[in-house]
Amino acid sequence: MIVVIIVAVIVVLVGSGVVIARGRRRRRPMLPDAPRVAMPSVLVTEVTQRPSLREEPGTLAQRLGSSRSVFDRVRALSGAGAVSAEQLEVVEEVLLRSDVGVATTNMILDDLRTNGAPDGIATSVRNSLLDSLSAERSVTLTAQPGRVPVWLFVGVNGVGKTTTIGKLAQRHVDEGRKVVLAAGDTFRAAAADQLEEWATRSGADIVRSAEGADPGSVVHDALGRAAARGADIVLADTAGRRANSTNLLDELSKVRRVADREPGEVVETFMVLDATTGQNALSQAREFLAAADVTGIVLTKLDGTARGGIVVAIERDLNIPVKYVGVGEGVHDLIVFEPEAFVDSLLDT
Ligand SMILES: Nc1nc2c(ncn2[C@@H]2O[C@H](COP(=O)(O)OP(=O)(O)OP(=O)(O)O)[C@@H](O)[C@H]2O)c(=O)[nH]1
Ligand SMILES: [Mg+2]
């Protein structure tokens, strides 16, 4: 009996102990969640633009496919001599669609009305367009003795400044020049990285600084380096954006002043424009003209959805020659603008 009682007591004690233990376990306060590491809201702020290795094949006419197709209906107009009202209407529609602008369109229509089209309408339009593209478009590669020539590139963001500099760096290096690139776009770090990739590929030297650095001092340092190393040319990139456009234009004027100070001399200031933005490119351009003293236009992305007539409108409205055109993203996709080859690629039947 005593044994039974002892066993019962032990059972009760052990059982209640378990219950107490369980109770305690239940009552134990929950551990707080492990503190979360604060995650940045944006993990990758900039993706470096990698220079394309793609080489687009094809003739100029094929590369300018979209610009050329705008002129399909003019190329299809047959007959020579007097031009009918219906034909004039087609020419007018096509020219306006091609982005040549109202003034050039009217000039060409007047000519067709007055003189007819002795060698066919496409040929007359071709000749008129060529007449409108008669600007002098050589580029300057030399500075005064003891100074380093600088080519400065300006334009709003995304138009193709950095890519154009990369393509030109390659061209200059191939032609035997010693090139220094100045990474004057300090607005974002990726801009200098992008330029550095082009420098590496082309064998050009580069001077860059940290994001947010003063663009003027980057250009100044690049000039110092170019002079010390006997470089033949400095190609200076600039930012395409700032908090507002007044700041951007002020900054450009300042960079220009620095670049033009000894040992540098700005011999070309290229305004880079994106041909696919059509007439908008013109209004952008006007903003930059005063600030930057532009000597030439680089018209990029003519291989895209552009309608090539914008070349004519730009030269006519801004009175600044188009000197290079971009026809792709590859390193060799920048060509010296030659009006005849260009107009023929649009209108040759
Ligand atoms: N199809 C085509 N694309 C081009 C051409 N030129 C530049 N691009 C592309 O346009 C994009 C913008 O070029 P960037 O050189 O970075 O332009 P950016 O003016 O330096 O731009 P920000 O540095 O932002 O001011 C890139 O994807 C280029 O590869 C061209 O002639 N044809
Ligand atoms: Mg850039």
According to DSSP, the number of beta strands is 8
Provide the CATH topology of the domain at 148-294: Rossmann fold
Overall shape: it is: elongated
* Sheet with the most strands, sense and barrel status: 8 strands, mixed
CATH class of the domain at 148-294: Alpha Beta
Percent of residues in beta strands? 5-15%
Helix content: 40-55%
The kinds of small molecule bound in this structure are: guanosine-5'-triphosphate, magnesium ion
Stretches where pLDDT falls below 50 for ≥5 residues? 12-54
User: SS-based structural class?
Assistant: alpha/beta
The CATH H-level superfamily of the domain at 148-294 is P-loop containing nucleotide triphosphate hydrolases
Distance between the termini: 122 Å
Q: Which strand order do you get reading across the main beta sheet?
A: 3-2-4-1-5-6-7-8
Which CATH-level-2 architecture of the domain at 148-294? 3-Layer(aba) Sandwich
Mean pLDDT across every amino acid position: 85
SSE order, one letter for each helix or strand: HHHHHHHEHEHEHEHEHEHEEH
Number of helices: 14
Radius of gyration: 33 Å
